[in-house]
Design brief:
With 221 residues, the chain is mostly helical. It has two domains: 49 residues, Orthogonal Bundle (Arc Repressor Mutant, subunit A), CATH 1.10.10.60; 141 residues, Tetracycline Repressor, domain 2 (Orthogonal Bundle), CATH 1.10.357.10. Helix content is 73%, strand content 0%. The longest helix is centred in the first third of the chain and has 25 residues. Keywords: DNA-binding. One of its GO terms (molecular function) is DNA-binding transcription factor activity. This is Transcriptional regulator, TetR family.
Length: 221
């Protein structure tokens, strides 16, 4: 007599159901999240991560602390959200550097974009600088993987331009480091720059022709 067939596994027989899609944010929720991130940017850029508190951020956002914690579970979560969105914006000009473009134009355009971002986004620049000065505890992996891959890719392009005699033979990594340093300085050390220059000066407007001359001479073959 043939054996009875094995009963079907009731768990395996159940159809797979997709997890429900997250509900879209309401207008009020979007407004509150934007208010929290804007307030956090102000507080973190002024106080640093260690000096900032959830109470300060909630007060600046016009929300109660429990209301803030409804959207973000911790100070670390808010800080990481800001850093991730900032890094995307910060790297966009470098991503736009084209191997097919005229080499000096591409590099000079990148330098000017970085200077303009320092003018328009000083708090974001200081937020990023504070994270780096603290040893990048929340971004070390991103810097070592995503940032390094992008910089290495653009460095290879710059190295190729130099090898072809289109620009002077410069170390591409240190060229990019110098662009970062010479543009973000005007955001990160704004108080010092303005104190030394005195009233009646626009540091960014005055910096652009100087940096144009500096990098044009550096890159000239």
């Amino acid at each position: 007599m043939p054996a009875d067939p094995m009963p079907a596994d009731p768990v395996a027989a159940e159809p797979m159901t997709a997890e429900p899609a997250p509900r879209p944010l309401t207008r009020i929720q979007k407004r509150n999240i934007d208010a929290i991130l804007e307030a956090a940017l102000e507080v973190f850029s002024a106080q640093g991560f260690r000096g900032a508190t959830l109470d300060q951020i909630a007060t600046a956002a016009g929300l109660s602390k429990p209301n803030l914690l409804y959207y973000f579970p911790s100070k670390e979560a808010i800080h990481l959200e800001l850093l991730n969105s900032l890094l995307d914006d910060w790297l966009a000009p470098l991503r736009e550097m084209r191997a097919t473009g005229e080499p000096r134009d591409e590099i000079m355009r990148y330098m000017r974009r970085k200077l303009e971002m320092s003018r328009a986004m000083p708090r974001e620049s200081r937020l990023f600088a504070n994270e780096i000065l603290q040893g990048a505890p929340r971004m070390a992996g991103t810097l070592a993987v995503d940032l390094k891959a992008l910089v290495d890719d653009k460095a290879a392009i710059i190295r190729g331009w130099a090898a072809a005699g289109k620009i002077a033979p410069v170390d591409p990594h240190h060229l990019l480091f110098s662009i970062w340093a010479l543009t973000q300085h005007y955001a990160d050390f704004d108080v010092q720059v303005r104190a030394v220059l005195g009233p009646g000066h626009d540091p960014f407007a005055e910096a652009e022709p100087f940096l144009d001359t500096l990098f044009e001479r550096l890159l000239r073959p």
